Amino acid sequence: MSKSRWIYTLIIIAVLLLFALIILFQDPREKIVGQKINYTDFLTMQPHVRDVTIRGDEATGHDDQNRAFSVTLPHDPAIATRLAQSGVAVVIAPAAAADGQSWEKTLLVNALPLVAYLYLVTLPLFRVAKSIDALGERLDRKSVPLQE
Fold first, then answer.
1. Computed over its alpha carbons, how large is the radius of gyration of the chain?
2. What pTM, to 2 d.p., does this model score?
3. How far apart are CA 90 and CA 53, in angstroms?
């Protein structure tokens, strides 16, 4: 196998491992649960709401038919009290950690694992490819028949 093929193979392996790491460390709270509805629809379906989890200005929950939904709430401190009085199971969760972070901090936090990955995984792979190529050159020199 030529040197360029080894390098391309190692790059493909490194990229696939990177995608696997990204998927592994994704925050499941970032995914929207259920159907996104507007606040007016949420108020009209309030008698049919079974449970709600409020995280910051986002609420997710289930209706009496166990259908998931999510809604963006206005700033209303009494919403949890009103829901609880209606017989809805209410859970107040802390807001997501990414709220209020600057884009520089987010970039730094997300870039550090990538840099560490590139340093710890791809650099040794390229060194292995280079040593395999050097070994191949040595074997080629030794296999040259002697001229008489």
1. 28
2. 0.45
3. 6
Tens digit of each residue's pLDDT (9 = 90 or more) over 54-76:
888 888 888 888 888 888 888 87
Q: Token pair 């560490």 is at which residue?
A: 116
* Alpha carbon distance 73, 15 (integer Å): 39
| DSSP symbols for the chain | --HHHHHHHHHHHHHHHHHHHHHHT--GGGSPPSEEE-HHHHHHTGGGEEEEEEETTEEEEEETT--EEEEEPPS-TTHHHHHHHTT-EEEEEPPPTTTT--HHHHHHHHHHHHHHHIIIIIHHHHHHHHHHHHHHHHHHHHTSPPP-
Using DSSP bridges, classify how beta strands 35-37 and 68-72 pair: parallel, antiparallel or unpaired.
parallel
Query: Position of tokens 């998931």?
Result: 68
